[in-house]
Design a protein that fits this description.
It is a single chain. The chain has one domain (about 5-225): Heme oxygenase-like (Heme Oxygenase, Chain A). Helix content is about 70%, strand content about 0%. It contains eleven helices and no strands. The protein has helices at about 5-15, 25-30, 35-60, 65-80, 90-100, 105-110, 115-130, 130-140, 145-160, 170-190, 195-225. Helix 3 packs parallel to helix 7 (about 115-130), helix 7 runs antiparallel to helix 11 (about 195-225) and helix 9 (about 145-160) packs antiparallel against helix 10 (about 170-190). The chain is globular, with a radius of gyration of 18 Å.
């Protein structure tokens, strides 16, 4: 494929597989969840948010040039924060606390679903063990995140009286970061995936990442929506 054909194939994967199409997300954005179900979503999603810097640090250590490392370092700062910005993880914890969850309990991840933890661990391991090209390609779900964030913020503000803009600070900050990061990753992948084998690996990596996000929502829906079978030790809404 030409670079532009590769980009079109990547975008087609997002159109088919991105988790904005998952029934749990449609319920979340449409105001169909109760307070406890929204709590469960925020608590479980924290596991993913907290793992992103570990995932990015493992890739940073393998990037071959200072230019690439400088670019990727911004992702760590976005999530871990700097002296001037608390970062995305702190903003996500603010959402959890705003929903009445105990901060230490959220950070401990004791209440997270097994399916959540397994999916997140699989993603970190994928980035650590696969090629640099595949690891970068797995981040390309960020191409699709600004649209889902806009939908999420609008839907949650419209439907849930227990949510306000202050609690959704993570989402208000994230779209420009995701746009910057995905533009860099897409340019890298289009430039470096020059063989059929490399392009196939890139496409498979994006499919895998979409599966990681989808499987987390499968776990949430099964435990807290239908049929509502919460596994032992997982968070139980009051």
């Amino acid at each position: 494929m030409s670079p532009d054909e590769l980009e079109a194939a990547l975008r087609a994967i997002g159109a088919e597989r991105y988790h904005d199409k998952h029934p749990f997300h449609r319920s979340l954005h449409g105001g169909e969840l109760d307070f406890g179900q929204v709590q469960a979503w925020a608590l479980n999603r924290y596991c993913y948010q907290a793992a992103i810097p570990a995932k990015d640090a493992s890739l940073l250590a393998r990037l071959p040039t200072p230019e690439l490392r400088r670019e990727w370092r911004s992702r760590l700062e976005d999530h871990d924060g700097t002296a001037d910005d608390p970062g995305g993880i702190a903003r996500w914890l603010a959402l959890c606390e705003g929903l009445g969850l105990d901060r230490d309990y959220v950070v401990s991840m004791r209440g997270a679903l097994p399916g959540t933890r397994f999916a997140v661990e699989a993603y970190v391991r994928w980035v650590r063990e696969r090629s640099v090209l595949e690891a970068v390609a797995s981040s390309l779900t960020e191409m699709f995140s600004p649209a889902i964030i806009a939908e999420r913020v609008a839907g949650m503000l419209r439907h849930y009286p227990f949510v306000d803009e202050a609690k959704l600070g993570y989402f208000l900050k994230r779209p420009p970061q995701a746009g910057r990061d995905s533009a860099f990753a897409l340019d890298y992948v289009k430039r470096e995936a020059r063989t059929p084998e490399a392009q196939a690996a890139v496409l498979d990596s994006l499919r895998f990442k979409c599966d990681v996000l989808w499987s987390q929502l499968d776990a949430l829906r099964y435990a807290y929506v239908t049929p509502g079978d919460i596994p032992p030790g997982a968070f139980r809404p009051e």
